[in-house]
Amino acid sequence: MPEIRSASLPEEFKRGMHVVITGSGSALPDPVRGGASQAVIVDGVVLLFDCGRMVTENLLKAGVNPATVSALFFTHHHFDHIGSYGYFVISSWIAGRQDAMQVYGPQGTVAMSDGAIHGAHESDVGFVRAMTSKVLPDVPVTVQDIEPGVIYEDHGITVTCAETEHYSAESGKKSLAYRVTSKYGSVYVSGDCTPTPDLIPLASGVDLLIHECAIPDPGMAETVSLGRGKRGHCAPTTLSEFGRDAGVKRILATHLPPFRANAATVAVSELYYGSVSLGPDVEDAFRKALASRFSGEVGLAHDAQVITIAG
Q1: Which domains can be identified in the chain, with CATH numbers?
Q2: What secondary structure does DSSP assign to the chain, as a single string?
Q3: pTM score
């Protein structure tokens, strides 16, 4: 196999602990925000959490070659969190990935991965394998289903997960939240969930709480309602209380509704979200609600945003 140019990182990411928001939006298409996901980078080791639409593009916007991602952690298997997985794997393979990406997630992750790669992308796998003089001969992923607890320890990084409330109990499906800890600090990634008291130990004292905030508080918007019910999602005042109770240093709200949506986006989202009429001041309203119970720094995530925990 000929030598392939190394997938280098920007100098700023080679030391310290950083976060790249690789998607800050909700489940439905939004031209401004990709599907909710984020990367945590520690001394050049890139860990990706979820793999929704635009994740590859947002990594590239931040200067991160997707082929540098060492491990991918899924919070759950809803379409907006897995939508770019097959594309991400195949494009990274073609780009010259030199070692297998470790993939972790709740029960069903192995089956989901097999379906995405060897089902939807079966023809692509055959095509890339025909390029064995230039790329690795096999799909460069190793996938496993995981249970709550410490599930990753390498390069001075520990990743711990806990079960969350997102799916209905009768569905039998599981969803997870994650905590990433290094010598530089800690980051919590919620996935989609209602924050509950049993998650406080996982989030306790983190430097950055990245939490979904998919629904406005009552009265914040004229007509917003998740048509399937609000179970399993979080509003800003609830998130403010959770951040306070967990003693976190900073809250970054993500999985945000289409705040700046045009008419076409509203039409696409209406059946799922209800008649979206958020108004021009809703972002300020979200920020005020996030700060209503929490005295630390708060913010709303945006795509390709970079947050440095320690440089």
Answers
A1: 12-310 (3.60.15.10)
A2: ----------GGGSSSEEEEEEE-B-SS--SS--BSEEEEEETTEEEEE---TTHHHHHHHTT--GGGEEEEE-S---HHHHTTHHHHHHHHHHTT--SPEEEEESTTHHHHHHIIIIIITHHHHHHHHTTTTTS-SS--EEEEE--SEEEEEETTEEEEEEE-B-S-GGG----EEEEEEETTEEEEE--S-B--GGGHHHHTT-SEEEEE--SPPTTSSSS---TT-STT---HHHHHHHHHHHT-SEEEEESB--TT--HHHHHHHHHHH-S----TTHHHHHHHHHTSS--SEEEE--TT-EEEEE-
A3: 0.94
